Amino acid sequence: MKKLLRLVVCTSALAALALAQDKVDLDAIYKIKQEAFQNSKVMDNLWYLTEVHGPRLAGSPHYKAAADWAVKTLKSWGIDNARLEQWGKFGRGWENRKFSAAMTEPSYMPLIGAPQAWTSSTEGVITGEPMIVTLANDEDLAKWKGKLAGKIILTDTPREIDLHDKADDHRYTQQELDEIATGQIGPQMFRRPTPGGPRQNFAQMMAFRRKMNDFLREEKVGLVLSGTRGDFGTLFTSNGGARDPKDPQSPPMVVLTPEHYNRIYRLADKKIPTKLEIEVQNQWYEPDQNNFNVIAEIPGTGKHKDEIVMIGGHLDSWHSATGATDNGTGSAVMLEVMRILKKLDMKLDRTVRIGLWDAEEEGLLGSRGYVTKTFADRATMKTMPAWEKLSAYYNVDNGAGRIRGIYLQGNEAARPILETYLAPFKDLGVSTITSRNTGGTDHQSFDAVGLPGFQFIQDPLEYSTRTHHSNMDSYDRVPREDMMQMAAIVASLVVDTANREQMMPRKPKPEPRGEGGPMSF
To answer: What pLDDT is attached to residue 516?
Structure first.
């Protein structure tokens, strides 16, 4: 009994010590909430990033224009050190300049579609009857050799469209948040589709895809049409070709919304005379001329001013819409956080730095390049002096939904700290802290080299069903109230982290991965 009593006393003492260490600044939180909710500029930020400078495909002039706008805006708020920083090699830039598509026989129908990124233009308007062409293996390539020049080909089978029996949008219930906290379910967001087999099978699939693209280019195919997931006119785009200037360009490729692709396929399958008219004009740009991260700082003024708290999100998007929920929202929120901190002249012991990352959609390239140059090389785990100085990195990139909690990425030592910092926002729906990992975005670049990198749990809304990488990813899909909530929470978390006596605790330093070794994220 005495041992148990001593244990309880010891545990209580440690808890009290943690609370003393991790007090929240309620006066600062009040001021931040007032500015974030009563004088918000977050939707103005989003509007410029999307409706003026979207889409922001990495390597395109629109991405560079968005980055320039972000630097100019940060400087207008008095953050004079805002700048563009190159992060490494990306490859060719690409941008769609014109797309038009219609079925003209057996009846006229405008087609909803978009070119795949990094694919070629058509030779003017291409008119013709679509052909069903199955290309699944080397035997199929041999079968079609010499038969596809100038043809419009359909390469996917139709996808069955299910009736909707529930709403596209969703906010987490408390039960779902409890299950996320205990690891029973993962975040409800779209993941990039992966093969069912191991990594070797994926490599084999990608190798055949390159072989197929080479075959179609050599055959001088006129246009490749494919279907997509989605419905109600929604389509999802991605990368169809190569950025490397040493690689040949892929043939023209267009993805159509399922309702339109399925109709064309069925007509061709039934041998009904069908005619399409499609024009694609894409522009290529010299390698690496539009690839930058946006970096800016509010210098700390205390004894830890050489240490850093970072915030960020990726600035790039896909190309079939304006990149609002992925990830105009995260960029707009983080810009708003910097505006709030600067306008309120918040006391910051540590320096606060923002990073708006390039080329996340192509594999976290901008943030990985920045981390490698600034903090540590993941392959060798050789660290730079700044590696010792980063307290934490906070990332927003899970759509437009309000923050409901945070992923610890296995950093259990940070749990009591973040529980304390987030407690004042329980009335705004923030209640969940989970030790589980979440992936697919830029906090992983930091976590991979042993730095505390955190991503927030957000309400999914329509992210997985309607907007993520789709032609519906527009400004109109973003709720203003959720954006203001995110800005208030991140700004408050930054102030508390910047003014904490100690830096955020870390997980053990990772072992070197080795050149060409398996990715840790």
So the answer is: 54
Burial of 336 (0-12, 13-18, 19+ CB in 10 A): buried
- Phi first, then psi: give them for residue 311, nearest 5 degrees: -130, 155
Residues 114, 281: Cα–Cα separation, whole Å: 11
Residues 6 or more apart whose CB falls under 8 angstroms from that of 263 comprise 103, 109
Q: Determine the Cα–Cα distance for residues 117 and 254; give it in Å rounded to an integer.
A: 9
pLDDT score recorded for residue 99: 98
Q: What is the pLDDT of residue 426?
A: 97
Cα 83 versus chain centre, distance: 22
CA dist 477 and 483 (Å) reads 12
Q: Note the pLDDT of residue 521.
A: 43
Q: What is the pLDDT of residue 165?
A: 87
DSSP strands (E only) in 260-307: 275-285, 293-298
Low-confidence ranges of the chain (pLDDT < 50): 1-19, 188-198, 518-521
Tokens of 191: 């993941």
DSSP designation for 464 = I
Secondary structure E strands in 370-496: 390-395, 403-407, 432-434, 453-458
Contacts for 180 with CB less than 8 Å, ≥ 6 apart = 172, 186, 187, 405, 432, 434, 436, 457
Distance CA 236, CA 260 (A): 14
DSSP state of 73: H
Long-range contacts made by residues 434-437, C-beta under 8 angstroms, separation at least 24? 434/180, 434/181, 434/182, 434/183, 434/405, 434/406, 434/407, 434/408, 435/183, 435/408, 435/410, 435/411, 436/180, 436/183, 436/186, 436/407, 436/408, 436/410, 437/407, 437/409, 437/410
Q: Which residues contact 110 (CB under 8 A, 6 or more apart)?
A: 101, 102
pLDDT of residue 196: 39
- DSSP per position, 383-398: BPGGGGTEEEEEE--S
What global pTM score does this model have?
A: 0.92
What strand order describes the sheet that includes 130-132?
113-115, 253-256, 223-226, 152-154, 130-132
Q: Which of 206, 192, 320 is nearest to 255 (CA)?
A: 320
Peptide bond into 55 cis (omega under 30): yes
Distance CA 161, CA 59 (A): 35
The enclosing H or E element of 99 equals strand 93-105
The rounded distance, in Å, linking the Cα atoms of 242 and 21 is 51
What is the DSSP code (8-state) at residue 290? T
Q: Is 493 exposed, middle or buried (0-12, 13-18, 19+ CB in 10 A)?
A: buried
